[in-house]
Amino acid sequence: MTKDPAAIAATLTTLDDLAQVSRWLDGGDVRFAVDLGLELWRRHGDDQVPPWQFGSLFDGILRRLALRPGPVTETAAFFSTVARGRRARYVASLLATEHSASELRALAGNAELSACLSQELPLRAYVPGRMWARPPHPLAWLSLRLTSMEQWPNMPRHDLRGTGTVHSRVVATPIPAGGPLPSWREEADTGDIAAAVSNWCTASNGRAATRVVVFDQPVTPAALPGIEGLTGTEGFGVCSLADAWHQLFEAASLGGAYSRGEFGAYGRLAAWRSVAALTGAPRDATFREVVALAEAGTWIWFGGATDWFAGDGWDLGVAVLSADGRRLAVLAATDTD
Prior knowledge:
This protein has eleven helices and nine strands. The chain is an alpha+beta fold.
């Protein structure tokens, strides 16, 4: 078998021995890996449905180069070429696993990749350095520093064999029912409350339900079990904002049963879009204003004792009671394989 990248790419769909190519890649020949990756991308990178051989081999090349320690100067042209559209989110997640901003400086010219790295790096406790998103890029709305409730999020664990994920748990203080429930009205527009779980619904088997209830008089958390849809749930209780945010972030960034998620940068944005809608923030609110509203509200976590939740490990139930006790926003989501 020839070791010529162009010849391998040309015969990819009829190639008998991908294992031999993988062994050559394992030898650490960076130039061969880059040239082969670029040839594969040139032939199949824009395919709507690329051949399975491309997905298998290209991802192996991408991981070998992205997880290689040290500056990416030698491979910068490769990453700048392939990090387009949604793939840039994945490339940034891989790169931020092993590299600091100073090592990634050669990639600053790729606007989308740089924007993603500006968020991926802080999520892994790296200073973003020269990597940042510039308005009107949507990621520019986010702070470059994590807030106190965002510290130490669960991130994908990438290695040459694949990606592993870990989900955190919520600690909730039970709420004894018994408070008075005044009259209330339901708002038709729930905004972007479901932003964090949109990938569950569009790329997997998930479904989500959202509600916003406005009370005539202030209520306490004890009255909330009387709201239809929350009655009969289990694990209903007050939780920390940090626990709630981490659940929203993991839903967005890690994905559901079959979805890959949005990865770190856009996962963080989706989580905060849900927080903004849950807290009733104006659509033009700044990041700091949303954080302040989130810190002022009472966060509630609930699980499913009803048939609505699939109970397969991708269940999410979170609600926020506003600081004045007059507004309750609810997000319930579930996914299954």
